[in-house]
Predict the structure of VOC family protein.
Amino acid sequence: MLDQINGLHHVTSLASGASTNNAFFTGDLGLRRVKKTVNFDAPDVYHLYYGDAVGSPGTVMTYFPFPGARRGRSGAGEVATTAFSVPLGALDYWQKRFSDRGIPGLDRTARLGEDRLMFRGPDGDGFALVETEDARAPWLSDGIPEDVAIRGFHSADMRLDSRGAAASAELLKFMGYEQDESQGNVTRYRVPNGNQAQVIDITQVDAPFADQGAGSVHHIAFSVDNRDKQLEVRKALMDTGYQVTPVIDRDYFWAIYFRTPGGVLFEIATDEPGFNRDEDTAHLGEALKLPSQHEHLRSKLERMLEPIDG
């Protein structure tokens, strides 16, 4: 069993438009845009990162906004809900804020003893706010009071068929997660002594496989401290039979990827070097930052990429 994984590092999803996506995360949710860059493989598409003041691992939601992308279809084999942590008693504030702003899909519910508010993003993305004790400092913006502001991720909920659920549970245990509580068709797994974003829920469903598109989670990334620990994880996964990519430099972290038995794409990402490697912390997310191999395209990309306010 591995002991290098701290919990979630980031969650990456697909969107149909950059400015709408940016307005939702920085305006409606009050997160900080910590990086404005482009997709390594499709540089005519943004890669936008939102999180706390410095983009701490376990707080960062990232998006590839493909202009006009069709919506995905939910089903088995996907991360269906990304949940954020808010302080105890915060949900009344958020329910009113979301209702006033016309955010769809509002539903107050409870899971495993925690109150949560379900809601939808601009492309039908599945989200929840979960009330829990969380000592992380929030990014404060748009007049959102500190005592209700989002702290970072709480969990990711994988929706899987019976075979995928069983195999993915074994994978999570191998990765250092311990089985926690269950409620109905939901089983929770938790990294002990993790980074506050250390929960994965598996929801077992009988449904067709999801069809990825705008609003779908592309992959979830797990945090390790550094490249040495990442290589240890890579070797252990490969020794177990997983097909793992070589280490890839993503400028702000180093990444490896592999597909889970349930169909979800997992990434293991380093906490180093961080989002301030090419911008002062006070100005994170303001300038368009390009991977070195795409810097020669700057003038073209600045003309064609959708303008983003803020």
User: Anything to note?
Assistant: Residues 161 and 205 are 5 Å apart (CA to CA). The longest strand covers residues 7-15. The mean pLDDT is 97. The chain has one domain: 7-304.
